[in-house]
Amino acid sequence: MNKQERRQLIEQEIVKCSRCGNCRSICPVFLAENNENTTPRSKARLLEAVLENDIELTAGVQQRFEKCLFCKACMTHCGSGVATDKVILAARTAAAERNGISPIKKLAFTGLRYRKLFDLCLRAGALFQHAIFKKLPDGRGRAPRILLPGAGLNQRRIMPDMTVSPLRTRLPEFIPAKKADSKGTVLFFTGCMLNYFYPQTGEAVVNILTANGWNVVIPAEQCCCGTPAFTSGDEATGRVLAEQNVKTIGSKKYDHIVTACASCGAALKEEYAHILDNSPLLAAWQDIAGKVLDITQFVLQHCDLTKLGKVPLKVTYHDPCHLVRGMQVSAEPRQILQSIPGLEYVEMKDANRCCGAGGSFSAVYYELSRHINDKKLDNAANTGTDYCITGCSSCRMHITDGLTQRHSPMKVLHTAEIISMAYEAGRKEGETC
Questions:
Q1: 267: DSSP letter
Q2: CA within 13 Å, CB half, 9
Q3: What is the full DSSP assignment across 357-411?
Q4: Which residues of 247-275 are buried (b: 16+ CB within 10 A; e: fewer)?
Q5: Could you give the residue ranges of the DSSP H alpha helices within 231-360?
Q6: What phi and psi, each to the nearest 5 degrees, are found at residue 48?
Q7: Predicted confidence band at 1 (pLDDT cuts at 50, 70, 90)?
Q8: Sheet holding 344-345: strands in order across?
Q9: Nearest-angstrom CA–CA distance, 394 and 193
Q10: Which of 111, 164, 260, 309 is deepest in the core (most CB within 10 A)?
């Protein structure tokens, strides 16, 4: 699809907008700021004015398009069916082509293109993180030793530990099933957060799969899914990363692809359609997309829930935006949690409302993202539970930061971790029978 065809599609989406204002009731940024300029309908009208050359796409206009969590809530609640995510993505791409992106993002996204260099930098950062961040005694992560400007670090923002031993170095590329007769092979797309910040979650995914009779292949050549780049308007980097992943996945033999990151899953399953629409690898991606499953979907479809053992915890669940609206996964994690013996599940109010993380959004607009997060934390606290479960590491990081700032005892776990705990409990119970 060429630029003219893309423009026509975006214009068609903009025309659909009736300016009804229904998006005001669901947009987390508007609800936090009460500023009409932040609403999706305002952004649609703004892009329309840009396309009609009524206003210039200045850096100030670009910032208005950047002030969006890309949570997709407006899209799913739009009575006119406006694909607002495509509208905002098009605006960000056009703005990035005209004005560029921030130097920090440009440096980071350039690094993403070079997988080995990116890996080296993060592993080096893990070695020296103690010089800048001090470890918290409760194990929730690290806080800056001195107040640093940007990304909320001037407010003692809590960051997760960077591991000196990333997931893909801990585990071999091929891991056989724990049962003699395997059911098949699962390709595990780890993403960046599980690889460098939450490897225990990745290990939990592998434990779930192998315990249920599946071989696991973890491609060493996989790279960032590209979501941070293309949602920031750097479509070129997004395409480079998408093509690298499609080539890598296409070179392996597998029956299913499993993700444990909402953004990675949505990218692999849905959003590469846009990024690769003029790529020779589009057909190869289409073969891949239908095999992508979130770990909770896979557990329900291909694992044995009767083997889950007792986990005596009281938990609630937060829906990551790119999981509930990007991959349409909502019932699956709840069904699994309610199937775990001894686990008390309490639904929180507005569980599918954005927590304010939004990837780099929480770094650029930390105070605003914290304000949005406060609503999520209030709802979680009202459940009276000990743990908040979620399927996104970015949400996990942001919610953990908010809980720590509040001195709340509640902790956050990835869905895969509690499922793995249940399977391990079931194994031990079986040994004592």
A1: I
A2: 16
A3: -TTTHHHHTHHHHHHHHHHHHHHHHTTT-SEEEES-HHHHHHHHHHHHHTT---E
A4: ebbeebebebbbbbbbbbbbbbbebbebb
A5: 235-250, 262-266, 272-275, 282-289, 295-302, 321-324, 331-337
A6: -60, -40
A7: low
A8: 344-345, 314-318, 387-390, 411-414
A9: 8
A10: 260
CA distance 87 to 138: 43
Strands 292-294 and 256-259: parallel
CA dist list (Å): 329 to 26, 211, 296, 322, 360: 19, 23, 8, 9, 23
The tens digit of pLDDT for each residue in 115-124 reads 999 999 999 9
pLDDT value for 81: 92
Report how far Cα 390 is from the mean position of its chain's Cα atoms: 10
Q: Residue 433: pLDDT band by 50, 70, 90 thresholds?
A: low
Please give the structure tokens belonging to residue 30. 């508007």
Rounded Cα distance, 306 and 318, in Å: 25
Which pLDDT belongs to residue 157?
A: 85
Backbone angles phi, psi at 292, to 5 degrees: -85, 130
Nearest to 315 by CA among 262, 370, 390, 397: 390
331 pLDDT band (50/70/90 cuts)? very high
Residues whose CB is less than 8 angstroms from the CB of residue 397 and which lie 6 or more positions away in sequence, other chains included: 141, 159, 160, 193, 197, 357
Q: Does residue 430 carry a pLDDT above 90?
A: no
| Distance in angstroms (rounded) separating the CA atoms of residues 293 and 297 | 6
Dihedral pair phi/psi, residue 174, rounded to 5°: -120, 125
pLDDT tens per residue, range 280-329: 999 999 999 999 999 999 999 999 999 999 999 999 999 999 999 999 99
Mean pLDDT of 338-360: 96
Q: How confident is the model at residue 237, as a pLDDT? A: 96
